[in-house]
Amino acid sequence: MSIDHALNVFFGSALVIILIFAEGIRKHSGNHVQKKLFCTMLIITFAMLTFDFIISLLSENRIREIFHGNVVFLIIDCLPFLLAICVIITFRGMFKENTFIMAVFLALFSVSLFIDIMIGSIKLIWPFIAALLLYTYFFIIQSETKIDSLTGLENRYSFNEFTSMLSHNKTGESWIIVMIDIDRFKSINDNYGHLEGDKALRDVASVIKSSLRKSDFAVRYGGDEFVLAVKAEDGVDDLMTKIINELVVLNKRNKKPYYLEISYGFDIFTADGSRPIEEFLNHIDELMYKHKEERRRAGDIKK
Predict the structure, then answer these.
(1) pTM for the full predicted model
(2) DSSP characters for 207-242?
(3) An example of a Gene Ontology BP annotation on this entry (predicted)?
(4) What does the alpha-carbon distance between residue 240 and residue 222 come to, in Å, rounded to a whole number?
(5) 216 φ/ψ angles, rounded to the nearest 5 degrees
(6) How many helices (H) and strands (E) does the chain have?
(7) What is the pLDDT of residues 25-76, one digit of tens each?
């Protein structure tokens, strides 16, 4: 590889990686495990790119001659391709949501691999890896807009996307939509402060999250309201019983001066275009408040 070509590949790819890293450190504040993993991947990529660049500059050097044909040098040449595969495997979840993008990246990967093997010393793999990391970063940022920062559940925007898809596709699928409201939440805020109110929201969200099955979908709808979407064939009775029982256990363990309890309403929504989703949500919201009022009259809501 000529020095000019090596410089173009190195500085072009390195600049993209550095900008992604800087922007990620400055803005990315969602899933901390994912952030740490992604930043570690960027650092490893930059280190490998720098190492590969140095090796390329030594292409006419005695060092290159010593390692040429050696297993060690073969491994060094294969490192960028192994790195690209690691990135795809590590963040495979995002590609499952967009099979077209996955097909494009696999095609680019195959072409760059073929050219680098057949021609040699072109190193098209590095711009490919930089583009792959850039797309991964865009996906992480986009996914963060769908997550409620306080509870870690998906947010109303994500739920609107879900219901919009149901309404427009008209697949005929049936879902049980559950509207959940925390009892006496205003009292918790008024008497113990908003920080304690936030803690209560996180506790309820944690119970909901731990109770979900793989096919269930849960969001923080707003304020102290949560929404669950459950496939009709799976039923909702066992799930709600589990959530209520887990809240009882939580109340005993926490020993707070208040009880975390919920009221809820639900019904079946069929995605056949027969009923506007907005009207249906108002309907289950009314069912939820009806359930809360019934529990209040029966004295089931503790202070």
Answers:
(1) 0.66
(2) HHHHH--TT-EEEEEETTEEEEEEEGGG-SHHHHHH
(3) negative regulation of bacterial-type flagellum-dependent cell motility
(4) 20
(5) -80, 155
(6) 12, 4
(7) 766 555 566 677 778 778 888 887 887 777 776 655 544 554 454 555 555 5
